[in-house]
Specification:
Elements (H helix, E strand, L loop, with lengths): L1 E4 L9 E7 L4 E10 L4 H18 L7 H25 L7 E2 L1 E7 L4 E7 L3 E6 L2 E4 L6 H7 L5 H6 L19 E6 L5 E5 L1 H4 L4 H8 L6 H14 L6 E7 L8
Antiparallel strand pairs: 1-11, 2-3, 3-4, 3-5, 5-6, 6-9, 7-8, 7-10, 10-11
Helix pairs in contact: 1-2
């Protein structure tokens, strides 16, 4: 289940999302948040999603666990190569790039991998709380880790959106590959920073665990909350539930 909105300020939606059960036996979800002038961010995020999906759709069935991790990393690195090559060939696309957060599972399974670059995030959300599974590749997060500023100051920092790692901006890039597992009562959330910069984790958690709403309504509510808080950026959310949750997927 995914939703995306241009927001209340931007003229173009540079976010892209994709969720599917592939014919070769894998479930995938991807969120990319593009950046760059002349609508280059829109092109970068589209290329990222299309390349990753194409690479993963070509995988053989029933890969071993470590092969699965390597396949996801290779797909994201292929996207990096594609975006960087196009940007280097056309001046108006110079320095375009995108974030990416993607999950890959064998179909029907709840153990897989997250691939991540940038500040789009993955969360595991359940009755017991909300856990951020990815680490933002931002200047402000580096300052927090080094103890130069505190978490509260980071939320208001004027350079909080400056990335130190992105997809497509450099010829070589490191992909964070994170094992992920979720239980029957858990939901996975992938999102662009248009959600997390507008809505705090407590409100995200209370919305996602609301049992009175189908998954689609919870995704719509998250989008609405970001827009009501100002909608300063494009907003994209993907919600994934356990195959045995007995709810809308």
């Amino acid at each position: 289940m995914h939703r995306s909105d241009v927001g209340r300020v931007r003229a173009v939606n540079e976010d892209r999302a994709y969720v599917s059960e592939l014919t070769n036996g894998y479930d995938i979800a991807v969120v990319a948040d593009g950046m760059g002038g002349h609508q280059a961010g829109d092109i970068a995020s589209r290329l990222a999603v299309e390349t990753v999906v194409s690479e993963l759709a070509a995988l053989p069935r029933q890969l071993e666990e470590q092969q699965l991790a390597g396949a996801l990393e290779d797909a994201i690195l292929r996207a990096n190569h594609t975006i960087f090559h196009i940007a280097s060939q056309d001046e108006k696309y110079h320095h375009m790039g995108t974030t990416i957060v993607a999950v890959l599972f064998p179909s029907g399974q709840t153990s897989g991998y997250i691939g991540h670059i940038g500040d789009s995030r993955a969360y595991r959300i359940g009755r017991r709380g909300i856990v951020q599974l990815t680490e933002d590749h931002t200047l402000v997060n580096e300052l927090v880790k080094s103890g130069q500023i505190g978490p509260e100051e980071a939320e208001r920092h004027p350079r909080r959106n400056v990335l130190v790692r992105a997809l497509g901006t450099d010829e070589q890039v490191k992909v964070d590959i994170i094992p992920v597992e979720y239980g029957e009562d858990d939901t996975l959330l992938l999102c662009s920073d248009g959600l997390t910069s507008m809505v705090d984790e407590d409100h995200i958690w209370s919305t996602v665990i609301d049992p009175s709403l189908p998954l689609s309504a919870r995704a719509d509510r998250l989008l609405s909350q970001a827009l009501e808080a100002g909608g300063d950026d494009n907003v994209t959310v993907v919600l994934l539930e356990h195959p045995d949750a007995g709810k809308e997927e």
